[in-house]
Amino acid sequence: MTPPDWSLLLDPPPFPPHGYARIADRLASLLGTKADIVFVQAEAVVALEAVAASLARPGLPVLNIITSPYGGMVGGWLRRAGAEVVDLTAEPGEPIKAEAVAGALDRHPQTALLSLVHAESASGILNPLPDILALARARDIVTVVDAVASAGGHALDIDALGIDVAVIGPQKALGGPAGLSAISLTPRAWALAERPEAPTGSILSLIDLKQGWLDTGRGPLPGMPAPLEWHAFAAALDRIEREGLTAVIERHAVAAAATRRALERLGLALWPAHGAPSNLVTAAVLPEGLDRAALLAALPAEVEITACIGPGTEHLIRLNHTGPRATPIAVARGIEALGAALRQAGVPADTEAALSDLPPRA
Ligand SMILES: *Cc1c(COP(=O)(O)O)cnc(C)c1O
């Protein structure tokens, strides 16, 4: 097979100066939100850092939920900006429990900001977002949700749930580019961000985005936008709109369910042991004594099966069925490769039985 002609990626036409507003409106419409949408022209961790740097202020009481290294990073950025951060850490590798959040909010009634990840690509867990946001709404707490992985893979009703800030990356379940991120913000979120000593003149400044783009009629973006990323974002939205977001989410749910059934038939225990799994990656427990690094190294490069990330996940692997991988064929290829690697490592694994309700692999 001849490799693609990557030189076609050179000399892209400029992205139309008024196309950014159109992208924002299409994304808002897909997600069904009336909140403002702004863009950070960088990968999603930069958008998360911008939110923390822009919303936190000295003394701001924050409850920061940690279910993966991402939550730990957000807590660090909030502290750096002077916030009084209380970390609430879930059992290793597991979702947070809504009761634990309620308890923490009762112990810290002054909490003004609550931050959490919706679904974790690091460990394949799903946090009980609606329950947690109901607790925050009842206490009038501004909420920040890292929906980088979950947007497109799970229902994310920003307005009905009362999410004040949602951070969205096109590159996971939405199947888009990795070099751009979107943030939705409500007036309550802007009220926290807008203050005399708010950071400006910085890639981390949401106020710069408001004053330089939202408040000036959403024309050209400040700086020098990377046209390839914007064309790719538009193409990803085309594809999602054609399929329909509900169908995209359903495709992820079907891929996750098929993966879980197949892993159980391979003889692996599913993760998390308690709480809900995500539709994005499925985590499984490796048999006792099996060398995870050696098993993963035996897999072909095109199969996306990797080590879970974060404390408490040292015995776990994750099968990625996000975005373009959320198809029965991609799931079947992953299971087939994993079955072969398990057998090679001396673990009996009946791939045919595991694949029985998945389509034949081409
Ligand atoms: C992938 C991911 C991020 C960060 O995205 P990058 O593209 O690595 O910057 C943040 N949070 C969650 C939950 C993610 O899955």
TrEMBL record:
GO MF annotation list: alanine-glyoxylate transaminase activity; L-serine-pyruvate transaminase activity
Superkingdom of the organism of origin: Bacteria
Matching Pfam families: Aminotran_5
Keywords per UniProt: Aminotransferase, Pyridoxal phosphate, Transferase
GO biological process: one example: glycine biosynthetic process, by transamination of glyoxylate
Coiled coil ranges: none
All residue ranges annotated as the Aminotransferase class V domain in the record: 23-299
Residue list for modification N6-(pyridoxal phosphate)lysine: 172
Signal peptide (residue range): none
Cofactor annotation: pyridoxal 5'-phosphate
Family, similarity comment: Belongs to the class-V pyridoxal-phosphate-dependent aminotransferase family.
Protein name per UniProt: Aspartate aminotransferase-like enzyme
